[in-house]
Design a protein that fits this description.
Blueprint (H helix, E strand, L loop, with lengths): L5 H26 L5 H31 L11 H14 L3 H7 L4 H14 L16 H13 L7 H10 L6 H8 L33 E11 L2 E10 L5 E8 L4 H15 L4 E4 L7 H9 L3 E4 L9 H16 L6 H18 L10 H5 L17 E11 L2 E14 L3
Parallel strand pairs: 1-4, 4-5
Antiparallel strand pairs: 1-2, 2-3, 6-7
């Protein structure tokens, strides 16, 4: 076997080429710091020529890769890139054919761009301006600030959009999702829509148009350690105002429910209808007693929670707060915490079904100011202040305040 094999010769040639290249690079680096300006200029010109040749080889690889693709599969040039190609064409004094060859295009495409530029001028689609419907940076900052102040899972994108709309700024939930999106959204199972029960119960019970027409009452059980409590809630169907939230040790009786309804009647007036389920506390004696007061008791079908869905949604919000709050294990202090939650729910929690209003605002007929869009093209300066504070020192009951000031641009 010969000592000078082909692989040995190739390795030797490669080593000699590397040594020559390293010597050349070292000499050129030394010449760039030479005292003579003529030598420094020659070294800089040689370095520029070297870089230009390497760039040509690099572009040749990219150009060859694009040429191998079918014309329909080649990526399209954006309007900004098209205008950049035409500028390079003018500066290099290329023809349309040469420009097309360099950028792997058809010459007619380049000629069409030139024609659009001559006929349409600045109105051509080659000139792109800012997107007119892009959300203003101040609004975008507000969304991120609300997410930072309220990282709890129960404060979702719908709640964030609701608070911003209350500050008279137009924004949708989808816009909030786009601003906050950092990963693909999780797939959610599509649940069938809740269909109201068929029969004598009409739609005006589920969507009343005035306050004090339809009330809803229901109960929820909660266990704290080895203690069992029952929460009874009474709500107005139109305004979602929480009229009563009572805590009972154990299971309440029918008399307790009657007293709860009558105490609310004395404070807020008498409703036309009262919706409840088929629980034992709302049996015949409860119905007879309430109807003697001039209130019609309406019960949905068995296992049809959607008929009393508004108060069921209240219990869902209440359970979220209960998981975060430190609760006492006796009725009196627990009732004080429920009164605190009732005030926060009515005064500071906006509802999507109420157009972003709180239950107290809907009860009193207060309308929110018309939200206006604030886009990135707005010439004025937008100053935003976002603040979160706790309701009665309870961090699980947030109160968000958003203030936006518009200053004319100088």
């Amino acid at each position: 076997m010969s000592v000078w094999s082909i692989s040995t010769v190739l390795h030797l040639i490669d080593a000699i080429a590397i040594a020559i290249a390293q010597g050349y690079m070292l000499v050129r680096a030394r010449l760039t710091s030479h005292p003579s300006p003529v030598i420094r200029l020659a070294a800089a010109r040689d370095a520029a020529s070297w870089d230009a040749r390497l760039l040509e080889r690099e572009l040749a690889v990219f150009r060859l890769q694009r040429e191998r693709l079918p014309a329909k599969q080649r990526p399209h040039y954006t309007p900004v890139h098209r205008l950049e190609i035409l500028q390079i064409m003018r500066l290099r004094e290329w023809s349309a054919a040469e420009t097309a060859r360099r950028f792997v295009l058809h010459p007619n495409s380049v000629r069409q761009w030139l024609k659009q530029l001559r006929t349409a001028g600045t109105s051509s689609h080659l000139f792109t301006g800012p997107v007119w419907n892009r959300v203003h940076d101040a609004v975008r900052w507000t969304v991120h600030e609300l997410r930072r102040l309220c990282p709890e899972p129960e404060v979702g994108t719908r709640t964030i959009a609701r608070h911003i709309v209350r500050a008279a700024v137009q924004i949708s939930r989808s816009s909030v999702q786009r601003i906050l999106r950092e990963e693909p959204p999780k797939r959610r199972s599509v649940k069938p829509a809740m269909v109201p029960p068929e029969g004598v119960e009409s739609y005006h019970l589920l969507a009343p148009q005035t306050t004090n027409r339809v009330w809803q009452i229901d109960m929820m059980e909660l266990r704290i350690l080895w203690f069992r409590f029952t929460f009874a809630a009474l709500m107005d169907g139109f305004s979602r105002k929480l009229l009563r939230l009572k805590v009972f040790n154990g299971t309440p009786a029918t008399a307790h429910m009657v007293r709860l309804v009558r105490s609310a009647v004395r404070s807020f007036g008498k409703p036309r209808f009262l919706i409840c389920d088929h629980g034992g506390q709302f049996a015949g004696r409860f119905t007879a007693t309430i109807e003697t007061d001039g209130i019609t008791v309406v019960k949905g079908k068995v296992r049809q929670p959607s008929f009393n869905g508004k108060i069921e949604r209240l219990f869902r919000t209440l359970r979220i707060w209960l998981r975060l709050a430190v609760l006492p294990i006796s009725v009196r202090p627990l009732q004080q915490r429920m009164n605190q939650y009732l005030d926060w729910y009515n005064e500071h929690r906006p509802h999507a079904s109420l157009g972003g209003r709180t239950p107290d605002e809907a009860w009193n007929g207060i309308e929110l100011p018309e939200p206006i869009p604030i886009r990135a093209t707005d010439p004025d300066e937008i100053v935003v202040q976002v603040r979160r504070r706790s309701y009665r020192d309870d961090p699980a009951l947030p109160i968000l305040t958003i203030r936006m000031d518009r200053k004319e641009a100088a």
